[in-house]
Amino acid sequence: MGKDRHRRRDQEASLSSDLSERPDRAFFGRRKGKRLTDTRGGLIDRLLPHLRVPLSDGLDPASLFSVPVTTLALEIGFGGGEHLLHQARLNPQTGFIGCEPFVNGMAKMVAAIENENIKNIRVFDSDAVELLKALAPASLDRIFILYPDPWPKRRQNKRRFISDLTVELLAKALKSGGELRFATDIDHYAGWTLTHIFRSSSLTWTAKGPEDWRKPWTDWIQTRYEAKARREGRRSSYLTFKRR
Ligand SMILES: C[S@@+](CC[C@H](N)C(=O)[O-])C[C@H]1O[C@@H](n2cnc3c(N)ncnc32)[C@H](O)[C@@H]1O
Question: Which residue's C-alpha comes closest to atom 14 of ligand 1?
């Protein structure tokens, strides 16, 4: 038991140092919450090495799944995993990569994958930028970014996931006609995202009118952060972009 705790602390410390060594872009998220129970920690030790996407230049996501998949999707920052699991159950022919550096969210996801014997989810437990850089160009049909950390104070805005660099990487990873779905409860972040996307010539906003960004997608399920936003009286924007 004591040994497990030490191992877990080492595991968490090494994940954090991976991220702090990035020269070109800092990562500003929380990696750890409550200490994992030994059962959850044991599951991570046992399953994550098999589920984790191995990075290599020109990574073809279609090669990651042991079941046939016709469509490929990525969710960045899946948090508690409600949306990713919902989508994976709904679309067994889609191969999903779920990216989440927060260890407790990843532990929950790995447990669900094991309990339900889910074959169409692979995971990445570090910064999505590293994954986007490795992915083969035009390899994904869909990317979800749902309630990314808002970093609401002006001086923190530059920590937001959406930047000129990430817009370029997101566009590069999507197939022509592929879709980026973005949800936020922070109006300033919605405007920030639109501003960044409008600067890119590769992505277009599909909205024709307010209903298109005020209503969630038809295959939507409420995430933990959306539930929190509603409790606190905030509405959401649901933005859909298409790769030209
Ligand atoms: C506000 S939470 C939202 C979680 C979930 N999507 C939801 O709606 O409940 C944002 C999540 O993004 C993750 N995150 C932050 N930066 C990230 C990055 N660079 N790559 C991948 N995930 C990231 C955080 O760890 C956190 O779990």
Answer: 77
Helices (H), 21-149: 38-51, 82-90, 103-116, 128-134
- In this structure, of 5-14, 84-93, 98-107, 143-152, the range with the lowest mean pLDDT score is 5-14
Tell me which of 2.60.40.1220, 3.30.450.40, 3.40.50.150, 3.30.70.1520 is the CATH number of domain 2-243: 3.40.50.150
CA of 210 to the centre of ligand 1 (A): 26
For 199-227, what is each residue's pLDDT tens digit? Answer: 999 999 999 999 999 999 999 999 999 99
Please tell me the pTM assigned to this model. Answer: 0.91
CA-CA distances (angstroms) from residue 169 to 3, 135, 160, 180, 233? 41, 9, 15, 12, 33
Residue ID of nearest Cα to ligand 1 atom 18: 127
Q: Quickly list DSSP for 120-178.
A: SEEEE-S-HHHHHHHBPTT-EEEEEEES-----SGGGGGGSS--HHHHHHHHHHEEEEE
Distance, in Å, from the CA atom of 96 to the CA atom of 93, rounded to the nearest integer, reads: 10
Handedness of CA 204, 206, 210, 212 (dihedral sign): negative
Q: Give the whole-angstrom CA distance, residue 107 versus residue 174.
A: 28
149 has catalytic annotation: yes
For the chain, what are the domain ranges?
Answer: 2-243
At 70-100, the pLDDT tens digits run: 999 999 999 999 999 999 999 999 999 999 9
Q: Which of 147, 162, 181, 232 for a ligand 1 pocket mutation test, highest count of atoms within 8 Å of Cβ?
A: 147
For residue 148, the CA-to-ligand 1 centroid distance in Å is 5
